[in-house]
Design brief:
It contains 9 helices and 12 strands. The chain is of the alpha+beta class. The strands form 3 sheets. A 5-stranded antiparallel β-sheet has the order 2-1-5-4-3. Strands 7-9-10-12-11 form a 5-stranded mixed β-sheet. It is elongated. It holds the Pfam family HisKA.
Length: about 350
Amino acid sequence: MTPDFSAFDSLATLVLVVDPPGRVLFANTAFEDQVRLSRRTTQGRLAEDWFARPEAVREALGAVRARRFDTMRFEAQLLRPIPEDPLEVWVLVSAAAGGSALVLELVESTQQARHEREAWREDQQRSSKELIRNLAHEIKNPLGGLRGAAQLLALELGGASPLLEYTQVIVHEADRLQQLVDRLLEPHRPVRGFEPVNIHEVCERVRALVQAEFPQGLALLRDYDSSLPEFSGDREQLIQALLNVVRNAAQALGPQIQEGRPAHIRLRTRVARQVTLGKRLCKLALELLVEDNGPGVPPDLRDRLFLPLVTGRADGTGLGLHLAQTIVQAHQGALVCDSEPGRTVFRFLLPLT
């Protein structure tokens, strides 16, 4: 019975399954895309033919085949059709389960670095979220007592007391802190039931809200792909996530608007194919870009942009982007930012399949 290797097609990494002499038995879809050859064409060819240093591949296959090592890992260059440059990859060679075949898994060097960076950020965000949640709960309980005591003191003082103003300040500040604590806890509340969502209805709702807030000097542009299907999600939370990002962009454009210089935000929707979200390969994903021509994110904030309480504005709370990313992650998606002076792009990716 011929082994079934089709499960490798679900991986974003490049995979070759070879027999003991190193001839290809199976190439997954990701490998086909890189070398521009069909699976049938690759079968029977020597795997080493696709590498700039074939001797490294032969050595690794021989070592794993002879059971000198369980796995072998080395750097290599995957040859691609001219005029494309060779692809820098890490190659992991291991034995396939239940047979004599060997598996070569190829991970792009840049992809490996990106995955390590994303894993570091996830760990950092997870620690920050836990700290913020615990801190918010510790603050919330005393606030209720503080506000109640101020109200009782106001009753004791009576309406004519000149000290009544101070009790009102205490109540007002306690309410303000309560609102901040509620926003800190908001990302940790469960997402409501999912339902079919049209991303363009979400975009238009956010566009109307931001246009009402910035009626002069800001151009909100559309670039929609009308063929995009509906997907399963929480419409109201997605509106909140997109609103936080677009409003953040609009506020960054504030100085340009005041000076009368061109200021625009573009909402662009497209279908993205073969996208890795977390550690899962999605054949189809929804891509929503929020692009502005503002000053860009300061370099010292770029690695901390989505952490709670991190902000570049004196009047900001640093919770908007954190909440947006948390909502997107609850939808099994990703939110990333690419910024330079004159162009900042926030990229929403949400799975369609």
